[in-house]
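A further point concerns the way the authors explain their paired sequence and structure data. Each protein is reduced to its one-letter sequence and a matching series of backbone shape codes. An entry of this sort, consisting of the sequence and the corresponding backbone structure tokens, reads as follows:
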Amino acid sequence: MLLIDPFNSIRNGTLYRIVAKIFLKEQSNFMRLQILQQTATAALHQANTGPQALLRFRAIIYIHSFT
């Protein structure tokens, strides 16, 4: 005899919604952290570009001062 639990589908649906909500929250948090990491990397790259350009410019001036 097959017993049908009318609350089983309700519990499964509720569990699915809870798991889906947790998954979406974690996925959103992961994406947010990934964007923050990419932004920080870009900011560091930009911050390092200025001093490197200045050093190259000074090296060119220094080399040309001997010619």
Notes: The chain has a mean pLDDT of 80.
